[in-house]
Amino acid sequence: MKTLIPALLAAAIGTAAQAQDFYLGGSADYHFPHSGDAQTVGSLIAGLGIVADRFAVGAEIEAGLKIAGDNEYDTSRARGWASYDWYGYSFRVAGGVTEYYFDDSTSGGYNLGVGAERDFSPNMRLRGEIIRDFMDNSFTAAVTTSRIAVLYSF
Predict the structure, then answer these.
(1) 3-state secondary structure string, 64-130?
(2) How far apart are CA 100 and CA 84, in angstroms?
């Protein structure tokens, strides 16, 4: 899994010239484990998408650093997503791989998410999302993340 995220990053960067939407942004994430202590993470997000009428598909990567809380881990995710525009909102589903980086170990798994976005300027949008990480060898079996993100489209 350690080589999967850099490989997906290279593939995403290599295809960015063909995408209709390239975006960067940041988010505040609240991680709530199935068992254990919660933590707040700040994440940087980069993604690309191809839009066809009301539908869009794409991929994104993210890296998160602990801001506050009782746990000590950083995060990274690589996800594919699909969305549908409806009455000014873009509703999305996503899924991919997750890694948590502890001081002495790494834990991996997969993630699923649902959310919505809304443009508040021609190049800026606000996203709200719920992401569930299913971990295979971690301190907990699953972690639910609540996210508020601001994204800038190029």
Answers:
(1) EEEEEECCCCEEEEEEEEEEEEECCEEEEEEEEEEEEECCCCEEEEEEEEEEEEEECCCCEEEEEEE
(2) 30
- Give the β-pairing of 55-69 and 39-52: antiparallel
Residue with tokens 């996800």: 79
Other C-beta atoms lying within 10 Å of the C-beta of residue 142: 15
* Cα gap 7→65, rounded to integer Å: 21
Number of domains into which the chain is organized: 1
Which whole-number Å values give the CA distances from 150 to 2, 26, 60, 90, in the listed order? 28, 6, 14, 14
Is residue 80 within 8 Å of residue 59, measured between CB atoms?
yes
pLDDT per position as a tens digit, 26-53: 999 999 988 778 899 999 999 999 988 8
Query: Could you list the residue range(s) of the whole structural domain that residue 13 is in?
Result: 4-153
Whole-angstrom distance, CA of residue 14 vs CA of residue 119: 27
State how far the Cα of 149 lies from the Cα of 41, in Å rounded to an integer.
12
The model's pTM: 0.84
CATH number at residue 37: 2.40.160.20
Single-letter amino acid, residue 140: T
Q: Is the pLDDT reported for residue 55 higher than 70?
A: yes
